[in-house]
């Protein structure tokens, strides 16, 4: 399909305990399929771990790496140096940062090697001080903790980001999208189309597409002004914007915004805003060691007592009880009227809602 590729691109996939298998295999399968449709090995890959020992994924399967970080660092001085290092992580990523890994990644970047973080891999790149002044993204579930730990880093909520030789994606199937963009950069759209045919994928998503649909939204489209209002809310969870300011930003009156939210989401803007803040709070409770009062402030509540009251009214359990019962990963329940705790919040009078929030 193409002339021989004189300089094959090699990848090192660095895996840490509890890494996400879907993200890891999606990336490798994209490279494998590219080799298949091109009829030659234009991409090669190997796997590394911190100590070279087998690593268990979050799904329970174990992968045996080819090298340790020490060996990979030595290979930087040889012809076996990689073209790109892909950091694959998942749950409990903050437990798996290390000085040796950070030093290896920094040295690799200085030598012109591209880096990528998938799923929560951006956390490891940030810990190595490689994302300062760069755009990046991370899985939505880990964004609140990332923002608290690396507040100065420009982290977005899209599927993927590329900035100055450093790439990041939100994980899961988005890894396949990211690799398609990289393969397209190397070989053009015809090869991407052929790989998609092999993988039975109907399209490659754009980097800026949202990781998640807004809360309570079905798969139908929303009014663009509501989406813009929601984006503003998501960007200002700790420093809450007055509803009048949000309305002005989308060129509507407050009354018009309230009518749109009621028509399309069956809730008020104030309730929706509070739901967003409570979702972020639960992620911080379950995935960080922050004190409850710190979480309250980070989510825009005036005091820990107000925060705890709202949290219990919505989730049906206190923040401390949530922390004691937490699991490795917690998918937020859909904020719909049929959810018992959500019903309690939904039925709160608007004046009371303003007081407790």
TrEMBL record:
Which spans does this entry mark as compositional bias, Basic and acidic residues?
340-357
The species this protein belongs to is Gellertiella hungarica
Superkingdom of source: Bacteria
Q: Which GO-annotated molecular functions does the record name? A: DNA-binding transcription factor activity; sequence-specific DNA binding
- Return the InterPro entries for the record: Class_I_gatase-like (IPR029062), DJ-1/PfpI (IPR002818), Homeodomain-like_sf (IPR009057), HTH_AraC (IPR018060), HTH_AraC-typ_CS (IPR018062), INH-QAR (IPR052158), Tscrpt_reg_AraC-type_HTH (IPR020449)
State the protein's name.
Answer: Transcriptional regulator GlxA family with amidase domain
Kindly give the PROSITE patterns that the UniProt entry links to this protein. HTH_ARAC_FAMILY_1, HTH_ARAC_FAMILY_2
Pfam families attached to this UniProt entry: DJ-1_PfpI, HTH_18
CDD domains, alphabetized: GATase1_AraC_ArgR_like
Annotated region Disordered: the residues are 318-357
Keyword check for Transcription: yes
Q: Which UniProt keywords apply?
A: DNA-binding, Transcription, Transcription regulation
Q: In what residue span(s) does the HTH araC/xylS-type domain sit?
A: 227-325
């Amino acid at each position: 399909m193409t002339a021989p590729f004189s300089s094959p691109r090699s990848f090192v996939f660095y895996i840490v305990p509890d890494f996400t298998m879907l993200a890891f295999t999606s990336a490798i399968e994209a490279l494998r399929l590219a080799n298949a449709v091109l009829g030659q090995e234009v991409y090669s890959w190997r796997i590394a771990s911190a100590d070279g020992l087998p690593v268990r994924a979050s799904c329970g399967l174990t992968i045996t790496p080819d090298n340790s970080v020490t060996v990979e660092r030595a290979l930087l001085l040889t012809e076996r140096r990689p073209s790109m290092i892909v950091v694959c992580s998942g749950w409990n990523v903050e437990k798996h940062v290390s000085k040796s890994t950070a030093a290896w990644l920094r040295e690799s970047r200085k030598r012109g090697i591209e880096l990528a973080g998938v799923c929560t891999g951006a956390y490891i790149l940030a810990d190595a001080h490689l994302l300062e002044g760069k755009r990046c993204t991370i899985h939505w579930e880990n964004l609140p903790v990332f923002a608290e730990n690396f507040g100065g880093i420009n982290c977005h909520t899209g599927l993927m980001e590329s900035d100055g030789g450093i790439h990041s994606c939100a994980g899961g199937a988005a890894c396949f999208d990211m690799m398609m963009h990289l393969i397209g950069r190397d070989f053009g759209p015809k090869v991407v189309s052929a790989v998609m045919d092999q993988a039975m994928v109907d399209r490659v998503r754009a980097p800026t597409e949202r990781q998640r649909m807004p809360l309570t939204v079905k798969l139908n489209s929303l009014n663009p002004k509501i989406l813009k209002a929601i984006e503003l809310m998501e960007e200002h969870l700790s420093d809450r914007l007055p509803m009048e300011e949000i309305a002005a930003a989308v060129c509507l009156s407050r009354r018009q915004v309230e009518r749109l939210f009621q028509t399309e989401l069956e809730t008020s803007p104030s309730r929706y805003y509070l739901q967003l803040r409570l979702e972020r709070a639960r992620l911080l409770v379950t995935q960080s060691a922050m004190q409850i009062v710190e979480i309250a402030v980070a989510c825009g509540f005036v005091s820990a007592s107000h925060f705890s009251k709202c949290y219990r009214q919505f989730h049906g359990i206190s923040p401390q009880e949530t922390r004691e019962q937490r699991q490795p990963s917690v998918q937020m329940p859909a904020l719909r009227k049929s959810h018992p705790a959500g019903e309690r919040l939904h039925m709160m009078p608007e004046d009371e809602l303003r007081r407790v929030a």
